[in-house]
Amino acid sequence: MMATLRQRLSGSGLSTTLGTRLAPLRARYEALQPREQVLVGIAAVLLVIALLYSAIWQPLARARKQLADDLEAAQAVAIKLAQAEADLRVAAPQSAPIVGADVSLLTAVDQAAKNGTLKKPPSRLQPDGDNTARIWFEDVEFDVLLRWMQELQSRYGVTIDVVDIEKRETAGLVNARLSVLRAP
Predict the structure, then answer these.
(1) Per-residue three-class SS string for 82-98
(2) What is d(CA 152, CA 138) in angstroms, rounded to the nearest whole number?
(3) Which of 54, 59, 83, 162 could form a disulfide with 179 if both were Cys (CB 3.0 to 4.6 A apart)?
C-alpha cells in the first residue's frame, strides 16, 4: 500500500515539491543521535495529541456541556410552567361571573390590565376589528402575565387567540404579544 501511495505521489509534482521542502528537516533529523531521534519522535507524537485535543476534543466537550446546560435550563422552565399552571388552577375562581360583558373589548382589556393581577397597562393596544385586538407587553413578569391571561379569560370572557412570548435578559421578565378576541 505504501508503495502504491509513493508511486501515485511520485507521478504528481506534489512529492517532489514536498520532498525538496522537507529535505533540510530530514537531514537534520538523520544527523541526530538515535536517542535524540527517539525524543524528537516522542515530542512529535505529543504535539499531534495536543493538537487533536485542542482542535477536536475540547470543542466537542464544550458543546456537550453547553447542550447539557441548555437542557437543564429548559427543564427548569418546564417545571416553572407546570407550577404556574397549578397555581392558576388553584387561584382561578371556578364560577366567577364575567365582569364587563357590556363594555367593549378594548375597555375590558384595559380594565383587566389596570385592576387585575398585572397592574400595568399594555405597551401597545391595537384594535383589529370590533371583536379582536392585539396587545403588546414589555418587561412583564412571566408568572404574573400567565395569571393575568387566565383572569382575562375567566373574568372578562376574552379568548386568547395567539400568544408570542420572548424572554428577556433579566430572569423572570418577558416581552409578550397577544391576539385576543371576544364573541359579539
Answers:
(1) HHHHHHHHHHCCCCCCC
(2) 18
(3) 162
d(CA 13, CA 11) in angstroms, rounded, equals 7
Question: What is the per-residue pLDDT for 96?
Answer: 53
**What is the DSSP track for 164-183?**
EEEE-SSTTEEEEEEEEE--
Report strand pairing: 124-127 vs 159-167: unpaired
Measured in whole angstroms, the distance separating CA 139 from the mean position of its chain's CA atoms is 19
CB 140 within 8 A of CB 124: no
Residue 131, all three cell numbers: 371583536
Answer yes or no: are the C-beta atoms of 149 and 160 closer than 8 Å.
yes
pTM reported for the whole predicted model: 0.47
Instruction: Kindly tell me the burial class for residue 29, based on how many C-beta atoms sit within 10 Å of its own C-beta (0-12, 13-18, 19 or more).
Output: middle
Low-confidence ranges of the chain (pLDDT < 70): 1-16, 92-102, 116, 184
Strand stretches in 10-131, DSSP E: 124-127
Which residue shows C-alpha cell 378594548? 106
Amino acid at 94: Q
